[in-house]
Amino acid sequence: MTGNARRAARLLVAGTVLALTACSGDVALSRDAAIPHAPPPSTAAAAPVPHGGAKRAPSVDVYAHDRPGLLSPVVAGFPSRVYVPNSESGTVSVIDPKTYRVIRTFRVGRRPQHVVPSWDLKTLWVNNNDGNTLTPIDPATGKLGRAIPVEDPYNLYFTPDGTTALVMAERLNRLDFRDPRTFALRASMEVPCRGINHADFTLDGSTFLASCEFSGHLVVVDLARREVAKVVGLPARHSMPQDVKLSPDGRTFYVADMAAGGVWLVGARGFKVRRFVRTGAGAHGLYVSRDSRNLYVSNRGAGSVSVVSFAKRRPVATWRIPGGGSPDMGGVSADGRRLWLAGRYDGVVYVFDTRDGRLLRKIPVGAGPHGLAVYPQPGRHSLGHTGVFR
After folding, report:
1. What are phi and psi of 45, to 5 degrees?
2. How many other CB atoms sit within 10 Å of the CB of residue 195?
3. pLDDT of 261-275, one tens digit each?
């Protein structure tokens, strides 16, 4: 997002929130309303075994297939690489994570925003937002394919069953339903908010919770009906919701808020806002640790990463970039030992050691690095963005 767009976004928040709250039954929660501090959710596996030796019910872990070593046979032969879209340069930089060196830079369309793994794990799609195209990369060979015309592809997701691609047409305030391979348009849905950009799915895959950056709202999308089921207002004077991530137990959505400087906890059933957890200025990207215990929150304005415990629902550590920085979007290495984040306003990629939070490297890339993809990663299939795997 450019400087002018960022300034416009802040102005839009104040005016648009009032207009949208009037048409939403769930936006009545005011900024000053008390948000209950609900206790951490219990799981069936944590319950005591009843007298008589009855077996425990299995616990739920959304990310159980994302553990180190659980690479799909589809990606087993792919070289490990980090693909960095440089939005202002119109290029993608490819990094060898073993040497921390840029081994290739190639030109794509205008303003590439994210590099997105396909549902079947076989292709990486570069989202050329202003170029209105998707550029395919073969992760086995590193070769580019022919770009496909797609209108306003700011971000890209795939339904959990793999049958539909969901294009987040941010500037058009629209969600497009497309064929996941050809990207032929099937349907378009206008959303009653501005700047739809990031999302995640409920545990059963039936519902899509998406953030609307420029109006400070979330929209609940019924995927079967292809309609907005609910609009959720965030109770802050100014909100710019960004990344969305489902908790490992499937009960709570975590939503990064760049303006409020933290994450909102939203119930995955009734979509009620439960509480706010402060992390740092410009809270932006959300990434789950390989053991499903922690959530890494990139604080773009603070130049830091907050480690939020899912069990405690609060930060348990803060990793700071010496001299400051602008950590944005990225991903966790396949073994879970590295967190890779684009330095949006510094033309670099940051590499953190997840065991102690040390900044290991700053790697120069192009201008405006954004939604980088660490690939391959464990998981059976991709739900999109920079790598949300199940």
Report:
1. -70, -25
2. 25
3. 999 999 999 999 999
Q: What whole-number distance in Å separates Cα of residue 13 and Cα of residue 21?
A: 12
Which pLDDT score, from 0 to 100, does residue 56 have? 46
- How far apart, in whole angstroms, are the C-alpha atoms of residue 109 and residue 90? 6
Residues 300, 373: Cα–Cα separation, whole Å: 18
Residue type, 96: D
Q: What is the CA radius of gyration of the chain?
A: 20
Q: What percent of the chain has pLDDT over 90?
A: 84
Instruction: Give 212-246 as a 3 state SS string.
Output: ECCCCEEEEEECCCCEEEEEEECCCCCCCEEEEEE
CA distance 280 to 154: 25
Residue type for 265, please?
A: L
Report pTM: 0.86
**Distance (Å, whole) CA 230 – CA 266:** 13
Long-range contacts of 339-347 (CB under 8 A, 24+ apart): 339/287, 339/296, 339/305, 340/82, 340/97, 340/372, 340/374, 341/285, 341/298, 341/305, 341/372, 342/84, 342/369, 342/370, 342/371, 342/372, 343/369, 344/300, 344/368, 344/369, 344/370
pLDDT in tens, 113-152: 999 999 999 999 999 999 999 999 999 999 999 999 999 9
Asked if residues 381 and 389 have their Cβ atoms less than 8 Å apart, the reply is: yes
pLDDT at 268: 98
Amino acid at 2: T
Amino acid code (one letter) for 154: Y
DSSP reduced 3-state for 375: strand
Domains of the chain: 63-375 (2.130.10.10)
Closest to 323 in 3D by CA, of 296, 353, 287, 350: 350
What pLDDT does residue 237 have?
A: 87
Longest CA–CA span in the chain (Å) reads: 66
Q: Which residues pair with 44 in a beta bridge?
A: none
Please provide residue 21's backbone torsions phi and psi, each rounded to the nearest 5 degrees.
-65, -30
